[in-house]
């Protein structure tokens, strides 16, 4: 199959890559951009491990072709921290035991950061409903919920 040359803007940096048009964004991020924080789980959009933020909205990168992301701003888990300082959500996951094996963690971090930055309701009901779209086999979710609650004030203050 023929390749296309595209540029993806990921975490504020342009990545000029060549790939088959049928390649998913998840594969392009991992294989072409060498950003392996985006995990690939089910490859059917069910588990949420591959969640990234595109133009301010959480998106399952396994369900999107890389060519569909051209001209959009993509943020992966590698783009959360700034200057070696963890994002408040990352720190809260550590402090409140929101991760165990860590496989699902990047997807949860990107889901929550994207939703909170969009400025919706942040009630307990909203948080629990939003988190229910991603799967975790290890934590039992309470640590994740506690981490999100703890990070909200700092995220609001930072505007991210």
Describe this structure in words.
The chain is an alpha+beta fold. It folds into two domains: about 5-80, Roll (Ubiquitin-like (UB roll)), CATH 3.10.20; about 90-160, DNA polymerase, domain 1. The chain has five helices and five strands, in the order ββαβββαααα. Strands 2-1-5-3-4 form a five-stranded mixed beta sheet, sandwiched between helices. Strand 1 and strand 2 (about 15-20) form a beta hairpin. Helix 2 (about 90-95) packs antiparallel against helix 5 and helix 3 crosses helix 5 (about 140-160). It is globular, with a radius of gyration of 15 Å. The relative contact order is 0.16. The model has no long low-confidence stretch (mean pLDDT about 90).
Gap between N and C termini:
40 Å
Inertia-based shape: globular
What fraction, in percent, of the residue positions are helical?
Answer: 25-40%
Q: What is the typical, i.e. mean, pLDDT?
A: 92
Number of strands: 5
The level-1 CATH class of the largest domain? Alpha Beta
Strand content: 15-25%
Largest sheet: 5 strands, mixed
Number of domain modules: 2
CATH topology of the largest domain: Ubiquitin-like (UB roll)
CATH superfamily of the largest domain: Beta-grasp domain
């Amino acid at each position: 199959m023929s390749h296309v040359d595209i540029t993806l803007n990921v975490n504020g940096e342009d990545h000029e890559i060549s790939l088959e048009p049928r390649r998913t964004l998840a594969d392009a991020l991992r294989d072409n951009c060498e950003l392996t924080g985006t995990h690939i789980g089910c490859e059917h959009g069910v588990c949420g491990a591959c969640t990234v933020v595109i133009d301010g909205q959480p998106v399952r990168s396994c369900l999107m072709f890389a060519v569909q992301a051209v001209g959009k701003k993509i943020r992966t888990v590698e783009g959360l921290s700034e200057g070696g300082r963890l994002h408040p959500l990352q720190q809260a996951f550590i402090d409140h035991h929101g991760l165990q094996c860590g496989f699902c963690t990047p997807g949860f971090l990107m889901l929550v950061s994207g939703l909170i930055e969009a400025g919706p309701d942040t009630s307990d009901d909203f948080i629990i409903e939003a988190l229910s779209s991603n799967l975790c086999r290890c934590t039992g979710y309470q640590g994740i919920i506690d981490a999100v609650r703890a990070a909200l004030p700092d995220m609001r203050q930072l505007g991210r």
